[in-house]
Amino acid sequence: MSETGRRPAVAWTFAVTSVAAFMVALDNLVVTTALPSIRHSLHAGLSGLEWTINAYTLTFAVLLLTGAALGDRFGRRRVLAVGMALFTASSAAAALAPSTAWLVVARAAQGVGAALVLPLTLTILSAAVPASRRGAALGVWGAMSGLAVAVGPVIGGAVTQGLAWQWIFWLNVPIGLVLLPLIRRLDETHGPVRRLDLPGVALASIGLFGVVFGLVRGNSHGWTSLGVAGPLVAGVVVVGAFVAWERRAAQPMLALGLFRNRAFSASNATAWLMSFGMFGSVFLLAQFLQTVQGYSPLQAGLRTLPWTAMPMVVAPLVGPLSDRIGGRPLLVAGLSLQAVGLAWMAVIVSTGVSFLSLVPPFVISGVGMALFFVPIANVVFSSVRPHQEGIASGANNMLRELGGVFGIAVLASVFSAHGGYTSGHAFVHGLTPALWVGAGFVSAGFLAALAIPRRGRPGAAPALVESLGGPVESHGDPVLVDVSASAS
After folding, report:
1. Three-class SS state of 40
2. Are domains 1-186 and 254-457 of this chain identical in fold?
3. pLDDT digit string (tens) for 294-307?
4. Cα–Cα distance measured from residue 61 to residue 112, given in angstroms and rounded to the nearest whole number
5. CA distance 94 to 102
6. Class assignment of domain 1-186?
7. Which end of the chain, N or C, is less surrounded by CB atoms within 10 Å?
8. Residues 144, 150, 155, 158: is their CA dihedral positive or negative?
9. Region for residue 222 given its phi and psi (left: phi exceeds 0; alpha: psi -120 to 50; beta: otherwise)
10. What digits encode the pLDDT tens for the residues 394-427?
11. Of 250, 245, 238, nearest to 199 (Cα)?
């Protein structure tokens, strides 16, 4: 087909995949400003709120690479349609939830759907766009996902305040129903057939669920009780079995051999620790603005923008700088700013703290996030050989998602051990030590970043595409696309 004839098809593919990616990326942080409303409506406890977030993120993280492999084998368009149908149906189920348990199950199903949708939107778009324009198209795709992260709390607050928290999920239904027939108009593509590591997926899912389940129940049921110690021990044992399996699997879900590389291990430790500290803190701070400060859901969402939108403002400036000086100095600077921002919040947070007092640490933390998200993919790619970039990128994205899961579980546990929802003072008493723990983990990420060797070979082409559906021909400057920024 001629270039002129391809343009409508490319534009159509770009529109459909971008809307689908925005939709599933939005559904992560859009829930944060609705948490107080969900707590009152469903009489949910802290553990229920944790699982409302973690059920989505955990299933997404574990199944991300499996979803891409299914698309390679059975057809990317077909699997994308299945994922969108599941995401739409589970959104309706979440909106109809009469209890916290129902909502959590629906959110887990949403995560499965998102794991099928998000990576395949990237690989379908990459296959449809001419090589000369692929970099620009993938860059805009990444910007759409980043925009979803920035506006998620605002949209969640506006919908919750103007309608009800259920409409956060109802809005997905008509969009999904419109997208489903449009997806059928996309070209079908396949990738290199890869063996599905189903035992690895099962072991990782069961083991991580056991550990997170124990952490969530620890304070309320007692850390030595059978209902807490049992899942924790069993989860650790199963995770150990997962590691043992991955070491002998012919095509493992997670290539453990890469961790012998110091640069790869240090950059992934940095990513895990950053997600742990930052997203665990966001989980609690989003509730603080409403529960303690008395802001409406929309007002609370707007007040998170100095934090969540800052990466969109700073990233265009950081990208060229990363190409000149390398990613390591930016990671070190970004993590130090994030740690300072969280520690600053821990010092000043109180029942009477003004929003203007929170703006400086919010901005500092947001700038730190930008300094992290822009170069981390390039640092990971530069730590391995070109043919390993796809596997390395997939592992890094999965570990970052899991860092957020454990961060929410641990920081919420610290919060409940020292405070609670009984009063504003009780909330602050729990929030303050949780923020200090978050700052501590981000500081540990700063130390891990210092262990990354100084700049090596230049960054590679968009290896994330390779990790989510096969190799991509490289043309021109490298493009950094970060799928985890869209789901955490």
Report:
1. helix
2. yes
3. 888 888 888 888 88
4. 9
5. 7
6. mainly alpha
7. N
8. negative
9. left
10. 677 778 878 888 888 889 888 988 888 888 899 9
11. 245
